[in-house]
Amino acid sequence: MADLTPTPDRPGLHVSKPSPTALATGSAVCDCGASATATGDSQVKALVEGYTANHGSAHSRAGR
């Protein structure tokens, strides 16, 4: 399986939760240079919400 972890060369958002009882983990890298990681279901949820609202495709929406 390919490594899906975002990098500055391949920005994006990656979330993993291998089982219902495991803690979720997440990482995000944006074209603007921002990056973040999170561990735990609520922290990963906040990471996804923040990335979706402020980074990634939000940059192209803001410019319209």
Q: Describe it for me?
A:
There is one protein chain. This protein has 64 residues and is α+β, with helices and mostly antiparallel strands. Helices cover 31% and strands 23% of the residues. The longest helix has 14 residues. The N and C termini lie far apart (36 Å). The mean pLDDT is 89.
Terminus-to-terminus distance: 36 Å
Low-confidence stretches: none
The overall average pLDDT, rounded, is: 89
Assembly context of the chains = single chain
String of helices and strands: EEEHH
Give me the count of strands: 3
Broad shape? globular
> What class would the helix/strand composition place it in?
alpha+beta
Number of helices, counting only DSSP H or I runs of 4 residues or more: 2
Helix-residue proportion: 25-40%
Major sheet details: 3 strands, antiparallel
How are the strands of the largest sheet arranged?
A: 1-2-3
Strand content: 15-25%
Radius of gyration, Cα only, in angstroms?
12 Å
